[in-house]
Amino acid sequence: MSAMLQVRDLVAGYGQAVVLEHVDFTVKRGEVVAVVGANGAGKTTLLNTIAGVLQPFSGSITFDGTDITKTPAHALPKQGLVLVPEGGRLFPFMTVEENLEMGGFSRRKASDFADSLEEVMQLFPILKQRRAQFAGHLSGGERQMCAVARAVMSRPKMIMLDEPSVGLSPKMVGEVFSLVENLARTKGITVVLVEQNVQEALEVSDRAYVLDHGRFVRNGSSAELGGDPAIQAAYMGL
Ligand code: ATP
């Protein structure tokens, strides 16, 4: 299987501060890959660098065979790469449907857009009920689903989710994660999931990377990492 994303020898940070130190990271087509680690490990920095929000100091990023190391953030959704930032960043005074429209604006034809909207409403039935409400009035879980749905509207090849479980009840975390799994299994969308909620992230992903102080200290199948007593003790409170 060819790689959807290949990050090589990446060094990134802010100003003089190096956060990611020579990171290698590969995601295969159709996989759900989790990046887990403590607060401040550099997970958001990794996603923002891949998404073009931050320019790396050195290293390379290849997405679906194209070098995107220097591609600006706004150009990536057209290439099929979408970031769902922490908290979702919806437009609170726009309705659910209008928010979804914003995700589909790169679809050229109106009929494509209508098809995407229909498809997304089927995947996220709760949004169908809420379509005319302001996004700012949604519950935390619904907001997260709306943010993921908005990303799906652009028909991405790959979605990167930054801590989708933050602030959600355990039940909602389960629902959001099973939707994420569903996107990968039924739509063939490749998923990168960044999480501090290590146990659930390992349950929903195929493979995982453990980030610690800007370096990957472990990677492997999620089942194997989840069963490892050292990982359980360090990250799962077991
Ligand atoms: P969290 O879960 O808290 O978001 P994280 O693993 O995503 O943690 P990052 O947000 O990538 O970690 O932060 C990694 C390091 O970079 C931290 O030491 C943080 O203080 C620093 N950092 C993050 N954003 C900035 C910024 N805009 N300017 C300077 N330093 C930053």
Automatic annotation (TrEMBL):
SMART domains per the UniProt record, alphabetical: AAA
Q: Does the keyword Cell cycle apply?
A: no
**Classification via Gene3D superfamilies:** P-loop containing nucleotide triphosphate hydrolases
What InterPro entries has UniProt attached to this entry? Answer: AAA+_ATPase, ABC_transporter-like_ATP-bd, BCAA_Transport_ATP-bd_LivF, P-loop_NTPase
Tell me a Gene Ontology molecular-function term this record carries: branched-chain amino acid transmembrane transporter activity
Q: Which PROSITE patterns match?
A: ABC_TRANSPORTER_2
Top-level taxon: Bacteria
Write down the Pfam families for this protein, in alphabetical order: ABC_tran
Name assigned to this protein? ABC transporter ATP-binding protein
